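Cross-check.
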Amino acid sequence: MFEKLFAERGLSLDRLKSLLETGAAGSIAKATEGDPVRQSQYSRQIKELEDFFRIKLIERQGQVARLTPAGRELSRISRFFMLGLSNFQRGSLAEEQTFRIGAGATFIQRFLLPALMPSRKPGATYVTEVVGDAEIERRLHDLTLDFGITHHADISRPLQTRALGKWRLELWLPKALGLNKTAAGQQFKKQQLPLALAQSELNNLNLPQLTKYPATLGCGSFLEARAALEQEELGAFLPGFLVPDKTAKSFLRIPLSQTDSCVFQFFLAWNPRLLRLNPHATRRRDLLVNLLTKQMA
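Predicted model, tokenized:
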């Protein structure tokens, strides 16, 4: 059945590992951390794979060598194979499994970490990464992430999702700015309202009126935008779950039809191939859905 694969030299786990690391890093230079000896080794091993499969796996753009579409496909196939072997090895050695979860910075701190802390049981560890929606989708396909938290259910096949909870975006201003709701709304339309905006997280929501708004202060997350709001010099758009009742004493909620009518959701996303490669992942998926749904409630 596999006679042709073993009829020639050039295919090995070491060579596939070099290809995998190059694909994950984006280039041979990054995969080898600039080590010229390892760069030469990786280039040679990938060239041997090219000779074996008789297809171009990397292409050079200036000084950078990146995977071709065929190289990315072979890298993806190899990762599935390697993950299956790795899971088998961990199971035979009774080692803990590690699950990688990608999400926005706010979701990780507000929901994910509190959900995972009380669920810590022998058998699994978790690694969280701050990743945007587009990167989450790509990495779920590549299985460099096990689970991801996205804002959209309509992601590309074969990825699957399950809803975790709904939320709304609200505009808040410090009363110290001396603006009433009408004046604040007018200044927002003129793009003159001083705002701290969580630009990277707002980009995931597909709201052009906010992504194009000239922020007075650009923030990396909604948590940073809330911290800026609390200095009482700038307004901020915040998810409803980040606005405690006590803020009403010093801050004013500004109604905006453009955003008040929008309902956003968080979804847990995964690649069903992961569940076939690692049966334990199904239980972890169900546990995450249960814990995170309760956290958002």
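Residues 69-92 form the longest helix (24 residues). The domain at 96-165+265-296 is CATH 3.40.190.10 (D-Maltodextrin-Binding Protein; domain 2). Passed to J.P. for a second look.
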